[in-house]
Amino acid sequence: MMEDRCCHRFAPLSKGRIEDGCNLRCMYHGMKFDQDGACIEIPCQDTIPESARVRVYPSVERGGWLWVWMGDAAAADPDLIPPVVGLDDPDWVLKPGQLDYEANYELINDNLTDLTHLGYVHNNSFGATEEWARILPTVRRTERGIRVTRWIPAGRGLSMKEDGEKGLADYVGLDWAQWNNSDYYAAGVLLLTSAMYRPEDMPADGKSQPTAQPVNASFSNHILTPIDERHTRYFFSFGPRAVDGDEQMALGLVEVAKMAFNEDRVMIEAQQKIIDKGAPNEVIIKADVGPVQMRSVIRKLIKAEGGETRAADAFTTEPGAETMPA
């Protein structure tokens, strides 16, 4: 991945022309760069300065996304790419979506790592109930992130929408116990599996991993790309298992998701405006364990990149991490 800026007059190289299969010519004054970013031709002169080069970032295409390492190229490690599910995965029928937020990416992280807001923000779209706020999840540290799991008893998590439009209940049913497993990876990738089980298959403790086979299941990727301090691009895909639904069902789920994510966007952009005015310190409650733990992971990774701490420290579970904010 090449920086979108010519080293001469800073023209966008995205408006350039591919030549010889792998070289890029700037279409402002004609300088040509090889795939390593070095200038190999200047039309008006034979001598090429060593400084005539463009920064190149290590990149990998995986799961339908292009992953770009923005830091030290020597530290790039493809093994750090989260295990996203691609649109071509035969086990799932996924359809994509995208929207832009006028907000910092960490506010969206907070939203995705704390689903207690579903019954208030998404009652109209998903048909979610306030049980999502009353039943606290289990949060655990994982490698480079957190895992958030939650059981919702049968008939308590979703309701049919009163306006006649389709919500999640129309696709997954109302009579099942719901299991949600969210794996969040630094710095902004959520992989969410939601599965429905027979009421008798929900563990008695309401927390243990499911052992039975689900009645149906859906999956969604959520990937955040910061544009700048106040703008974030949000990519997502959503759909059912291939054994549970088809493309029409996947498209329906994505339409419901788009409505829900726009509800999030309105709330989060409003948050950002208040924060920009100089909001006081937040009051932390029990439901904040996910956002607090994820912010802790990201802060430590940022410090590690600056040499202030070790990256491994970001994965150490702090006292009370599974029940209360650290």
UniProtKB/TrEMBL annotation:
Keywords: 2Fe-2S, Iron, Iron-sulfur, Metal-binding, Oxidoreductase. Pfam families: Rieske (PF00355), VanA_C (PF19112). InterPro entries: Cholesterol_7-desaturase, Rieske_2Fe-2S, Rieske_2Fe-2S_sf, VanA_C_cat. Residues 1-68 form the Rieske domain. It comes from the Bacteria. The keyword Cell cycle does not apply. GO terms for molecular function: 2 iron, 2 sulfur cluster binding; metal ion binding; oxidoreductase activity. The keyword Chloroplast does not apply. This is Rieske domain-containing protein. It comes from Novosphingobium pentaromativorans US6-1.
